[in-house]
Amino acid sequence: MISSEAAPFAKTGGLADVVGALPAALQALGEEVAVVIPRYGSIDLKNARRVWENLAIHLGPASFPITIYQAPAEFPVYLVDCPPLFDRKGFYGDSAMDFPDNHLRFAVFARAALAVARLLFRTEIFHCHDWQSGLVPAYLRTTFASDPTYLGCRTLFTIHNLGYQGLFPKAALEEIALPPEAVYRPEIMEFFGRISYIKAGIALADALNTVSPTYAREIQTPEYGFGLDGALRARAKDLTGILNGVDYLEWNPEIDPLIPARYSAENLEPKEICKRRLLEEFGLPPEAAERPLLGIVSRFTRQKGTDILAEAIADIIAEDCYLVALGTGDAEYEEFFRRMQRDFPGRVAVRIGFDNALAHRIEAGADIFLMPSHYEPCGLNQIYSLKYGTVPVVRATGGLDDTIEEGTGFKFADYSGRALFEAVRTAINAFADRDGWRQMMRRGMRKDFSWKTSASAYSELYRRLLGR
Ligand code: ADP
Fold it and tell me: Rounded distance, CA 135 to CA 140, Å?
């Protein structure tokens, strides 16, 4: 697997959770899996083993010296170390902007991953994730097309989020040493006068998938296709949707060491303790314990429905409820959350930051989890919420639509503040019926979205690709 993130080494979102957990689930099915990620500045090499030194990646006239480390994990995790490119604060940029050499960083990364396959881990399937590994199929189809090392290898490209595309000026082609006559074509990686790394993956991988069946359909429409719906429709017969699993060793209120009290479907009482502590931690008044507490853990971006939340928040709070939110993201949306806290003091409390333990405490302490996403390829937090008995209110899109059903949560279709508010009000009314609510919590808690099912689907897809 070639990815820009893998938990616990490097994580900004769901991609890292998937690449951190799916390999172990595949191993349990008898597959041999290794993962390649960049070695960012934040990854400590103290416990890593140096497994290859002085590897030179040549891109045209330029040469990049690489060291490959192997990190301690259940499966081989290879870290591509190239300090001038990756030893920085941030994976893709700082809060102000993307790094200006991302085209080069993820070209060198793709080539280094191919070198790992040549030197360290005999590979049959290159499973690539998102735009950062989109050049892997491109180099295999061009630079290495007749290289015996990769003969018979197949590629799978998984789309975790179509909204991030890796768009660069055409001139970058020279720096990344891809032949323009082969790739600068509208059916390959040309995208309105620029080059698109995600389009390279879409056009050139042997098979494609995305992380839920509904999102696989949605991205073939103009509304959700980000200009790539045509490219995706052209590959419709090679495109499937496989729902992500979740790691119940990490996200399970029965054993979670990060929450103040452990509870289960059979013993819900201790969840009250989690709620009270959460209210204290966020400085909300004790009387809030009697009222519904809404929770949000999210990247603060437009994708996550921030604008309809802005429309609905006053009406929501008027229902006599409370909201806690944790997230980081775009400056304007971070500011929106701060403003909400100022506008509704004692009702809305916000933490800006990335804090895994706090994410767990919110899952455990809230009554209702909000995900009003504009689009959501799979979404993990709503699945965690089911497990924590924190009833999700979600927009019926992508993986949210595939994982939440009547009886375990509340869905709304229209992307509007009105529709969001109506769904929240329905949930708040349901909350008043304590017995009914507990039944709903229990139904969600008993749902099983563990990796086993997804891993089997991937394993089957690999086998089909290899013609077995
Ligand atoms: P996305 O990948 O679009 O960000 P997902 O719901 O698929 O959304 O995955 C988000 C993951 O990142 C979850 O594991 C969630 O708990 C975590 N996460 C997101 N924001 C934060 C944050 N500010 N602090 C801690 N964890 C976060």
Answer: 8
Per-residue pLDDT of the chain (468 residues; tens, 9 = 90+): 999 999 999 998 889 999 999 999 999 999 999 999 999 999 999 999 999 999 999 999 999 999 999 999 999 999 999 999 999 999 999 877 999 999 999 999 999 999 999 999 999 999 999 999 999 999 999 999 999 999 999 999 999 999 999 999 999 999 999 999 999 999 999 999 999 999 999 999 999 999 999 999 999 999 999 999 999 999 999 999 999 999 899 999 999 999 999 999 999 999 999 999 999 999 999 999 999 999 999 999 999 999 999 999 999 999 999 999 999 998 999 999 999 999 999 999 999 999 999 999 999 999 999 999 999 999 999 999 999 999 999 999 999 999 999 999 999 999 999 999 999 999 999 999 999 999 999 999 999 999 999 999 999 999 999 998
Nearest ligand 1 atom to alpha carbon 12: 12
Instruction: Give the residue numbers spanning the domain of 185.
Output: 14-245+452-465
Residue 225 domain flag? yes
* Secondary structure (DSSP) of 346-413: TTEEEEES--HHHHHHHHHH-SEEEE--S--SS-SHHHHHHHTT-EEEEESSHHHHHH--BTTBEEE-
User: Which residues on adjacent β-strands are paired with residue 63?
Assistant: 58
Judge if the beta carbon of residue 356 lies within 6 A of ligand 1.
yes
316 lines ligand 1 (CB under 6 A): no
Using a 6 Å cutoff on CB, does residue 359 contact ligand 1?
yes
Instruction: Tell me which of 92, 252, 299, 337 to substitute to probe ligand 1's pocket, judged by most ligand atoms within 8 Å of the beta carbon.
Output: 299
For residue 368, the CA-to-ligand 1 centroid distance in Å is 17
CATH number at residue 146: 3.40.50.2000
Do 54 and 138 belong together in one domain? yes
